[in-house]
Each structure stands twice: as C-alpha cells, then as structure tokens.
Write a structure and sequence with these properties.
With about 400 residues, the protein is an alpha/beta fold. It has 13 helices and 14 strands. It has helices at about 15-25, 30-35, 40-50, 115-135, 175-180, 190-205, 260-265, 265-275, 285-290, 295-320, 335-350, 370-380, 385-395, and strands at about 55-60, 70-75, 80-85, 90-100, 105-110, 140-150, 155, 160, 185-190, 210-215, 220-225, 230, 325-330, 360. The longest helix is centred in the last third of the chain and has 25 residues, at about 295-320.
Length: about 400
C-alpha cells in the first residue's frame, strides 16, 4: 500500500495513528507500519497509548496472508460522548452522540431562542444532563459540545454576530456559560453551516464541492469546498438570504436592506402572500404540505420562491462550481415545486460547464442534519491528532 508524504514522516504520532484507524485507512498494526513507515515497536507504543485512553480496542482477527492472523484494531466510539444542539426559531433539536457521531438519544423542544443565551443555555444544560442520564452516560465522559444557531457566527471566537437576527445573541460567548457544567471544548457555528456539514458527512462524503440551502423562516447556505466547510474570513460566507433579487418592489428586509431574497422568498413572506390570496396555513410546514399536495396557490408561491432562490444560486454555481446543491429546511418538504423553480433558473443562467454534472437534490438527513453536523464539528476538533496527542501527553505527565 503506498505511503502518503505526511504519513511516511518519522514524526507520525499516536494521534495520526488514531486517525488511520478511525477512518478505516489502516486496521492492523502491520497496515499501520506499512502506511507510516514506523517500526513494529513504534507502532506498538502508539497503539498502547491509544488503548490506555480507551480510544482503540482489539477486535476479531483479520485475514492472514500466512502465519498468525493479525488482530484487527477498532476505534472505540464508546470512549466518550459529545453533546449536540441545533437551535431554531420555531424548533430546536438536542442530542447526546458517541464518538462516531451516532445519536444515542435526542429530544426536541421550543426554548425562547430569541430571548438569548441566558434563557436558552440553562435549558440546554438541563436537557443534556437528562439525556446523559437516559443514555446511561456520565457527564465526566463528555468530550465536547457543538451548537448551531440561526444567524452569522464568528466561528473563531464562538460568538453570534448578527444583530438583526437574534439580536440578544450578538457578541455573547457561550463557552463560559457551558463550561460551568461541562468543562470541555464548546464550538458554536451558523445553523446552515452545521447542517451542511452533517448532510455532507452522512450522505455525500465523496463529494468535495457542495452547497446546502436551507429554505425556511430564513434562507441561508452552507458551502463545502474542497471537502471542508467554507466560512470566509469572519464566518459570514453563505448569507445568500441577504442578497438582493430583481423585481422586489422595495420590500424591506429585517437586515435593514430592501429586496433581499429572504424578504421575498422566506417563509413569513410566503405565508403573508398566501393569506392575501385568500388561503391559509398555520406555518411553513403546513404550507409545504399544501404545495406538495398540489394546492394551486401554494404550488405557485413555492415555485416562485424556488425561482428567486435559483436566481441567487446561479451566481453561486458560476462562482463555486459545486457538484451538488442540497435543498433543506421546512419549505424543502415541498420539494417538487421548489426544485422545479430552482432548476428552471439555475440551469438557464449558469454556464454550461458549471452545470454539466450539477445535481439538485433534497436533503436526506432532514431534521438530523443539524445534530449530525454539530457532533462532527466537535469530533473534528477533539479527535484531531493534535488534541489526542495533547490528551496523551497530559495523562503521561499527571502524577500517579
């Protein structure tokens, strides 16, 4: 098996070895040695360090090529948990996940997100504690916390930074609020970035370039470029809901501008137009049900919204050349009329080369996308080679 330049370095660490095992790139000590160039004693030392932390266990024997069958090494996803939350204006999802990102237990709730972290974080902490108890897990085993919130987030600082959207969250760092109960890494990101990460890892892992579009109360995009989330310099990438569109008639947007995509194609605007036409829907999910069921007024509204979303996405397709556009959010439940409008405009206004292999598909993760992405956000950090090596070094230096 060929060695990568990075893997063949003599500075291959225990954290690097864990990544090989965790990703399935190597499953035995022999394969690790072949991939990294490490000697047998060096491989044995690193595997022993990982086993001592509970991160690696020995499984069944692998097929033998002659002689004693090698023992298969397995990543131990039960060595800890991560806490995940996908917060929304109308509905929030909270979960406890294992170290493979699998949801162990979950619940939904409707905390008053618009009231800010002081109202939401206590609810989150109590909910996570109850879920840990339900899963038979200890708070001491929590390795990290991941939270997705509506609006722009400065990812590096972990602060929400979008006053027109959830103004009470602006500038508030939630890490200290969570650390009082769970003193672990806490990562905060935009809800659509988190959904894009979850959708990508769970259902499109082989796609390097993907755009996830959430169409619900608000409209936003999460961008995967080169296999990684594209956040931009300060975390503001993907704010397509606040790009002006044509023929808006000077419609004001909550961001302070006029004729933004969200102001014309977001859920509240569509519900208002439906009511003006004599129709009625209790909320965006009901509007989506009406449209998917063929209600003429609802179909017209959703398809028109799709055209406006497509107007903005056409520019994104020309700029980013994604292989896949994924439509998610409550309005995407009316997939047929929504995607018809999106495709109508995207394939007409984007270049032939940019759309040659482009597919537009519905979300497959749906309500799980935010939770899966929040878990992955944390796992990418706490199981990175650097974090694992630091954990091993701290354990080695600790007095017995």
């Amino acid at each position: 098996m060929p060695r990568s330049k990075a893997a063949s370095s003599p500075a291959v660490t225990s954290g690097d070895v864990l990544r090989l095992i965790r990703t399935g790139a190597a499953a035995t000590r022999t394969e690790i040695g072949r991939r990294t160039g490490l000697s047998r004693p060096a491989v044995a030392l690193r595997v022993a360090e990982l086993a001592a932390r509970g991160l690696v266990t020995e499984g069944d024997a692998a097929p033998s090529s002659g002689g004693r069958p090698p023992t298969r090494l397995e990543f131990n996803a039960d060595a800890g948990t991560v806490l995940a939350a996908a917060l929304g204006i109308s509905r929030s999802e909270v979960a406890v996940c294992d170290l493979a990102g699998r949801v162990l237990t979950r619940t939904a709730g409707t905390p008053a997100v618009e009231r800010g972290p002081d109202a939401v974080v206590p609810w989150l902490l109590d909910t996570w504690t109850a879920l840990l108890d339900a899963a038979g897990r200890s708070g001491a085993g929590v390795r990290g916390v991941g939270v997705g919130v509506p609006g722009t987030v400065e990812f590096a600082t972990g602060r929400a930074a979008s006053p027109p959207v959830l103004a009470s969250w602006s500038g508030v760092e939630i890490r200290p609020l969570v650390a009082a109960r769970f003193p672990v890494p806490v990562l905060l990101d935009n809800d659509v970035n988190v959904m894009a990460l979850g959708e990508h890892r769970a259902h499109h892992p082989g796609v390097d370039d993907l755009v996830f579009v959430k169409v619900s109360t608000g409209i936003g995009a999460g961008i995967v470029s080169g296999g990684s989330l594209l956040r931009g310099d300060l975390g503001a990438a993907g704010e397509i809901g606040h790009i002006p569109v044509r023929d808006g008639g000077g419609t004001p947007c909550r961001c302070g501008n006029t004729d933004c995509l969200e102001a014309l194609a977001g859920g509240p605007a569509l519900l208002a137009r439906l009511a003006a036409a004599g129709g009625a829907a209790a909320g965006i999910p009901e509007l989506a049900v009406l449209a998917q069921g063929g209600d003429p007024a609802a179909v017209t509204l959703v398809r028109d919204a799709g055209r406006r979303v497509g107007e903005v996405l056409a520019g994104a397709v020309n700029l980013l050349n994604p292989a896949v556009i994924v439509l998610g959010g409550d309005l995407a439940r009316a997939y047929d009329p929504l995607v018809a409008g999106v495709r109508e405009v995207v394939f007409r206004r984007s270049t032939a080369l940019a759309t040659r292999r482009l597919t537009v598909v519905p979300s497959r993760a749906w309500d799980d996308a935010g939770l899966l992405g929040a878990a992955e956000l944390v796992l990418d950090r706490v199981l990175s080679p650097e974090a694992v090596n630091a954990e091993i070094a701290a354990a080695t230096a600790a007095p017995v």
